[in-house]
Amino acid sequence: MTRPPRHTLTEDAQALAYGAGMAAFGIVMLTHLGFVTGQTAGLAVLISYVTGWGFGPVFFAINLPFYWLGYRRMGLAFTVKTFLAVAALSGLSMVLPDYVSFASLHPAVGAVLIGFVSGSALLALFRHGASLGGIGILGLYLQDRTGFRAGWTQMIFDACLFSVALLIRDWQTVAWSALGALVLNVVIAINHRRDRYIAT
Questions:
Q1: What stretches pass through the bilayer (predicted)?
Q2: Considering the domain boundaries, does residue 140 fall inside one?
Q3: Of 27 and 140, which is predicted with more confidence?
Q4: Which residues contact 17 (CB under 8 A, 6 or more apart)?
Q5: Global confidence as pTM
Protein backbone atom coordinates (compact mmCIF):
# COMPACT_ATOMS: atom_id res chain seq x y z
CA MET A 1 0.00 0.00 0.00
CA THR A 2 1.36 3.42 -0.97
CA ARG A 3 2.04 5.76 1.96
CA PRO A 4 -0.15 8.88 1.74
CA PRO A 5 1.72 12.09 0.83
CA ARG A 6 2.87 14.26 3.70
CA HIS A 7 2.14 17.95 3.96
CA THR A 8 4.92 20.22 2.75
CA LEU A 9 6.52 22.85 4.98
CA THR A 10 4.63 25.55 3.08
CA GLU A 11 1.33 23.75 3.64
CA ASP A 12 2.07 23.37 7.34
CA ALA A 13 2.96 27.06 7.63
CA GLN A 14 -0.28 28.06 5.90
CA ALA A 15 -2.29 25.83 8.22
CA LEU A 16 -0.63 27.27 11.33
CA ALA A 17 -1.27 30.81 10.08
CA TYR A 18 -4.87 30.03 9.19
CA GLY A 19 -5.54 28.19 12.43
CA ALA A 20 -4.02 30.87 14.66
CA GLY A 21 -5.66 33.67 12.67
CA MET A 22 -9.15 32.20 12.72
CA ALA A 23 -8.83 31.26 16.39
CA ALA A 24 -7.79 34.84 17.20
CA PHE A 25 -10.79 36.15 15.24
CA GLY A 26 -12.99 33.81 17.25
CA ILE A 27 -11.53 35.21 20.49
CA VAL A 28 -12.25 38.77 19.32
CA MET A 29 -15.92 37.89 18.76
CA LEU A 30 -16.08 35.94 22.00
CA THR A 31 -14.67 38.68 24.22
CA HIS A 32 -16.73 41.34 22.41
CA LEU A 33 -19.85 39.49 23.51
CA GLY A 34 -18.45 38.74 26.98
CA PHE A 35 -18.74 35.01 26.31
CA VAL A 36 -16.69 32.19 27.73
CA THR A 37 -15.45 29.10 25.94
CA GLY A 38 -13.95 25.72 26.66
CA GLN A 39 -10.49 24.14 26.72
CA THR A 40 -7.41 26.07 27.85
CA ALA A 41 -8.61 29.10 25.88
CA GLY A 42 -11.71 29.14 28.06
CA LEU A 43 -9.66 28.97 31.21
CA ALA A 44 -7.54 31.86 29.95
CA VAL A 45 -10.68 33.88 29.12
CA LEU A 46 -12.11 33.33 32.60
CA ILE A 47 -8.83 34.35 34.23
CA SER A 48 -8.65 37.48 32.05
CA TYR A 49 -12.22 38.46 33.01
CA VAL A 50 -11.53 38.02 36.72
CA THR A 51 -8.08 39.59 36.85
CA GLY A 52 -8.13 42.10 34.00
CA TRP A 53 -4.99 40.53 32.55
CA GLY A 54 -4.83 40.20 28.78
CA PHE A 55 -5.98 36.94 27.21
CA GLY A 56 -2.82 36.52 25.12
CA PRO A 57 -0.22 36.38 27.91
CA VAL A 58 -2.49 34.26 30.13
CA PHE A 59 -3.19 31.78 27.34
CA PHE A 60 0.50 31.51 26.51
CA ALA A 61 1.43 30.90 30.16
CA ILE A 62 -1.31 28.32 30.80
CA ASN A 63 -0.08 26.20 27.91
CA LEU A 64 3.54 26.00 29.07
CA PRO A 65 3.10 22.90 31.30
CA PHE A 66 1.42 20.95 28.49
CA TYR A 67 4.34 20.99 26.08
CA TRP A 68 6.15 18.25 27.96
CA LEU A 69 3.09 15.99 27.60
CA GLY A 70 2.91 16.95 23.95
CA TYR A 71 6.56 16.06 23.44
CA ARG A 72 6.32 12.78 25.35
CA ARG A 73 3.08 11.64 23.77
CA MET A 74 2.96 13.25 20.32
CA GLY A 75 6.60 13.96 19.39
CA LEU A 76 8.85 16.91 18.74
CA ALA A 77 7.25 18.07 15.48
CA PHE A 78 3.78 18.22 17.06
CA THR A 79 5.12 20.11 20.07
CA VAL A 80 6.99 22.69 17.99
CA LYS A 81 3.98 23.27 15.71
CA THR A 82 1.70 23.61 18.73
CA PHE A 83 4.06 26.05 20.43
CA LEU A 84 4.13 28.18 17.27
CA ALA A 85 0.33 28.09 16.94
CA VAL A 86 -0.17 29.05 20.59
CA ALA A 87 2.39 31.85 20.35
CA ALA A 88 0.78 33.17 17.16
CA LEU A 89 -2.71 33.08 18.68
CA SER A 90 -1.47 34.82 21.82
CA GLY A 91 0.15 37.58 19.78
CA LEU A 92 -2.70 38.02 17.31
CA SER A 93 -5.29 38.19 20.08
CA MET A 94 -3.46 41.26 21.42
CA VAL A 95 -3.31 43.19 18.13
CA LEU A 96 -6.40 42.06 16.20
CA PRO A 97 -8.90 44.05 18.32
CA ASP A 98 -7.25 47.22 16.99
CA TYR A 99 -8.32 46.23 13.48
CA VAL A 100 -11.64 44.42 13.97
CA SER A 101 -14.76 45.73 15.72
CA PHE A 102 -18.48 45.04 15.62
CA ALA A 103 -21.26 47.61 15.54
CA SER A 104 -23.84 44.86 16.04
CA LEU A 105 -23.46 41.15 16.75
CA HIS A 106 -26.45 39.20 18.03
CA PRO A 107 -25.48 36.67 20.72
CA ALA A 108 -27.10 33.74 18.87
CA VAL A 109 -25.39 34.57 15.57
CA GLY A 110 -22.13 35.28 17.38
CA ALA A 111 -22.25 31.96 19.21
CA VAL A 112 -22.70 29.96 16.01
CA LEU A 113 -20.04 31.94 14.13
CA ILE A 114 -17.58 31.54 17.00
CA GLY A 115 -18.18 27.78 16.92
CA PHE A 116 -17.73 27.55 13.16
CA VAL A 117 -14.65 29.80 12.99
CA SER A 118 -12.94 28.22 15.98
CA GLY A 119 -13.83 24.71 14.82
CA SER A 120 -12.34 25.32 11.38
CA ALA A 121 -9.22 26.76 13.03
CA LEU A 122 -8.74 23.67 15.16
CA LEU A 123 -9.39 21.34 12.22
CA ALA A 124 -6.66 23.03 10.20
CA LEU A 125 -4.23 22.64 13.07
CA PHE A 126 -5.21 19.05 13.87
CA ARG A 127 -4.83 17.97 10.25
CA HIS A 128 -1.33 19.41 10.14
CA GLY A 129 -0.12 17.79 13.34
CA ALA A 130 -0.66 20.69 15.74
CA SER A 131 -3.15 21.97 18.29
CA LEU A 132 -3.75 24.98 20.50
CA GLY A 133 -2.26 23.18 23.46
CA GLY A 134 -3.67 22.06 26.76
CA ILE A 135 -6.80 19.96 26.52
CA GLY A 136 -6.34 19.76 22.76
CA ILE A 137 -3.14 17.80 23.34
CA LEU A 138 -4.88 15.48 25.77
CA GLY A 139 -7.83 15.05 23.42
CA LEU A 140 -5.64 14.19 20.44
CA TYR A 141 -3.59 11.77 22.51
CA LEU A 142 -6.68 9.94 23.73
CA GLN A 143 -8.14 9.83 20.22
CA ASP A 144 -4.97 8.38 18.72
CA ARG A 145 -4.54 5.83 21.52
CA THR A 146 -8.13 4.80 22.27
CA GLY A 147 -10.30 6.08 19.42
CA PHE A 148 -12.21 8.30 21.84
CA ARG A 149 -12.93 11.42 19.79
CA ALA A 150 -11.00 14.59 20.66
CA GLY A 151 -14.23 16.56 20.46
CA TRP A 152 -15.85 14.52 23.23
CA THR A 153 -12.84 14.88 25.53
CA GLN A 154 -13.01 18.62 25.06
CA MET A 155 -16.75 18.61 25.71
CA ILE A 156 -16.27 16.94 29.12
CA PHE A 157 -13.69 19.56 30.09
CA ASP A 158 -15.98 22.29 28.79
CA ALA A 159 -18.82 21.11 31.04
CA CYS A 160 -16.60 21.55 34.09
CA LEU A 161 -15.35 24.93 32.91
CA PHE A 162 -18.84 26.24 32.20
CA SER A 163 -19.97 25.21 35.66
CA VAL A 164 -17.29 27.49 37.07
CA ALA A 165 -18.24 30.22 34.59
CA LEU A 166 -21.72 30.39 36.13
CA LEU A 167 -20.09 31.77 39.27
CA ILE A 168 -18.70 34.85 37.47
CA ARG A 169 -21.00 35.43 34.45
CA ASP A 170 -24.81 35.65 34.18
CA TRP A 171 -26.60 32.50 33.09
CA GLN A 172 -27.80 33.97 29.76
CA THR A 173 -24.22 34.75 28.71
CA VAL A 174 -23.08 31.31 29.77
CA ALA A 175 -25.98 29.73 27.86
CA TRP A 176 -25.04 31.53 24.62
CA SER A 177 -21.41 30.64 25.26
CA ALA A 178 -22.39 26.98 25.64
CA LEU A 179 -24.08 27.08 22.24
CA GLY A 180 -20.83 28.28 20.67
CA ALA A 181 -18.84 25.57 22.44
CA LEU A 182 -21.35 22.94 21.33
CA VAL A 183 -21.09 24.02 17.70
CA LEU A 184 -17.29 23.95 17.91
CA ASN A 185 -17.15 20.48 19.42
CA VAL A 186 -19.68 19.04 16.96
CA VAL A 187 -17.60 20.42 14.08
CA ILE A 188 -14.52 18.69 15.49
CA ALA A 189 -16.30 15.44 16.35
CA ILE A 190 -17.81 15.08 12.86
CA ASN A 191 -14.91 16.31 10.74
CA HIS A 192 -11.73 15.18 12.51
CA ARG A 193 -11.65 11.62 11.17
CA ARG A 194 -8.32 9.92 10.55
CA ASP A 195 -10.08 7.24 8.51
CA ARG A 196 -11.22 9.93 6.07
CA TYR A 197 -8.29 12.36 6.15
CA ILE A 198 -4.98 10.55 6.25
CA ALA A 199 -2.34 12.97 4.95
CA THR A 200 -0.05 14.21 7.74
A1: 15-35, 41-62, 74-96, 108-126, 147-168, 174-191
A2: yes
A3: 27
A4: 88
A5: 0.84
